[in-house]
Amino acid sequence: MSSTLILTVIALYFVLLISISFITSKGAKNSTFYSGDRNSKWYLVAYGMIGASLSGVTFISVPGEVDSLGFSYMQMVIGYLIGYAIIAFVLMPLYYRLNVTSIYAYLGERFGNTAHKTGAAFFIISRILGASIRLFLVADILQFFVFKDMGVSFYVTVFITLVLIYLYTYRGGIKTIVWTDTLQTTFMLGALGISIYLISQQFGAAQSWEHLEGIGAMDWFVSEDGNAKNYWLKYILAGMFITLGMTGLDQDMMQKNLTCKNIKEAQKNMMSFSVILFFSNLLFLVLGGMLFLYIQESPELLEVFNAMEADKRNDRLFPLIALKGELGTGLGITFLLGLIAAAYSSADSALTSLTTSVSLDLFRIDRLEENKSQRYRKIIQLCITLLIFITICLANIYKEQNVLRTLFVMASYTYGPLLGLFFFGILSKRKVNATALLIICISIPTALIVLMNHSKDIFGDFLIGSELLGINGLLCYSALYVASLFSKQN
């Protein structure tokens, strides 16, 4: 693909996004930015959430994981379904009953101002890191395959991307995001389907299926060793806890759900979304199997692939085949649109939710008069944009091995206290001293980081994987309960 064609595709895509933003933000008030006037259609929210949930990490990293994990990732996806059901029928009724815009207001209602700000702070840290890693992955891919040959700096690529995201979200906020996410989901799933179709055409249905069977397409539960990270029970529990933390207790994901008219529509949105997401993840693994089949039959591409850095090789498999393979310009354009959509559907909603949480949870600017509140909100959004830019720049200096694993490890530490706090509040009626609550939420994750660095010495062959988030949440819950026994408020 020529540089001119690539830049034209990207430019037209952003023109489309900004046009949608212009239409959806007409007559928008400051409160519209946060709540979308609670008038979103549940099916639009459900469909759009697919793009935000999958993100560039799924689009790039999940197909590459097939090489090392086969289809065992589906064990975690089964856990996702359990987590989404708990969100729909336990957490969401709570949020709607309290009529909150920021879900961390519940912690303020239940435990007081310290808990409110602590919960918001953990989300802000989690989402800035998560959004930065997701966007870094896509920017790194675009830089390696597209902009490097044009002489464009990685930092310029990231900066322009963030400026464009800021431009189409700063007015309409979540109301705009609900509509742009539907567009971005369409491009992402379109790229997925077209890629699978084109590669399968190269080999025929019989050979393609034989290859998928050979790498375990029907064998999701591959380990009976309870010590292994991919032991089925660990993966299912990990998927459930990751969903509860990274969706149910995450302002980014829940803010879209809270734009639905009522709890019934929000629940329909959540359950239909979970089913679509289940099959989308399965198709991304099928795509991964097809990509490895294709590259094994393409000696020139295989040579380029094997020459790449080992820790980035699998993440660059899909873009290598789409942009450098012989499957046609159509696949290259579709891939680019899908990749950009995957990145921006996650980054734009992250920017909006972070702005909401900082504005409402930390600074309470909603108490100010309209013009002043709107001015401060735009300044906060600009500051968060710059902070994400700085974080991505740091990520470029210190590159981790695998983005998908890195994201889940980070989530295990930062979402664990939120899991403990929320479910302690829901499952008990006890109170906790504000100082004790803050100490627990900071000390438990810190202790776990130290513990995991010496896990081999402590646990031997027993390996702890992504279920660490649940362990973190359980420890926080237990510590909060013990602290509540000594609280004078009970």
Describe the protein in words.
By secondary structure, the protein is an all-alpha fold. It has helices spanning 3-24, 30-35, 42-69, 73-98, 105-111, 113-147, 154-169, 174-203, 205-214, 232-248, 251-257, 263-296, 299-307, 317-324, 329-362, 370-397, 403-414, 416-427, 434-453, 455-459, 468-485. Helix 6 runs antiparallel to helix 15 (329-362).
Annotate the secondary structure layout.
Layout: H1 3-24, H2 30-35, H3 42-69, H4 73-98, H5 105-111, H6 113-147, H7 154-169, H8 174-203, H9 205-214, H10 232-248, H11 251-257, H12 263-296, H13 299-307, H14 317-324, H15 329-362, H16 370-397, H17 403-414, H18 416-427, H19 434-453, H20 455-459, H21 468-485
Q: How many helices in DSSP terms? A: 21
Tell me the CATH architecture.
Answer: Up-down Bundle
**CATH first level:** Mainly Alpha
Shape: globular
Membrane topology: Multi-pass membrane protein
Family: Belongs to the sodium:solute symporter (SSF) (TC 2.A.21) family.
Transmembrane segments: 6-23, 44-62, 77-98, 119-146, 152-170, 182-200, 231-249, 270-295, 333-358, 379-398, 404-427, 434-452, 464-486
Pfam families: SSF
Structure, briefly:
Helix 19 runs antiparallel to helix 21. This protein has helices at 3-24, 30-35, 42-69, 73-98, 105-111, 113-147, 154-169, 174-203, 205-214, 232-248, 251-257, 263-296, 299-307, 317-324, 329-362, 370-397, 403-414, 416-427, 434-453, 455-459, 468-485.
Keywords:
490 residues; 21 helices; mainly alpha; Sodium/glucose cotransporter
